[in-house]
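User: Some background: our group keeps a shared notebook of sequences we're curious about, and every so often someone picks one and asks for a predicted structure to add to the entry. Today it's my turn. The entry only has the sequence so far, pasted here. Could you supply the structure so I can complete it?
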Amino acid sequence: MGLGYFLLPAGGALSLTGVITGNGTLIGLSWIMWVLGVLLLLRNRSRRPADPRELAAAAAAGDARAVRKLRTLALTARARGRPDTAERLLRQAAQAGDVESMWELGRLVEARRGRTEAEPWFRMAAGHGHAVARRLFRAGGELNRDEADPR
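Assistant: Of course. Here's the predicted structure to add to the notebook entry:
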């Protein structure tokens, strides 16, 4: 969602208030809000989708926004039933240092190939401070394979 989705109904409410109260200033402001809302929606609609290769290059160069966009694309791919794409994108984001991508990659790998295969990603996320990932390990660093309480 974007600002355009806010401006349109807000402009409508402002217009209605202006008509009811007879305030021409409010009606004028509502027109400005409507025009801006429509322009923002059109601008967002015309944007080209993010290119994963460009995002991966930017993420590798340290662009935090690119890393988050990679993770978002990966989670979208996973939700749409494309786990191979999701895994590839999460690997790129995790290698760029994104802790949440490390965790999500661990979850994806665990679902596909088991907890043993996912351990390096969970361990990496835990080592970078991911609170939930840390709970997967017992004192001494052993992976909690039976999912019992790690304490």
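Suggested note for the entry: The mean pLDDT is 88. Residues 24-46 form the longest helix (23 residues).
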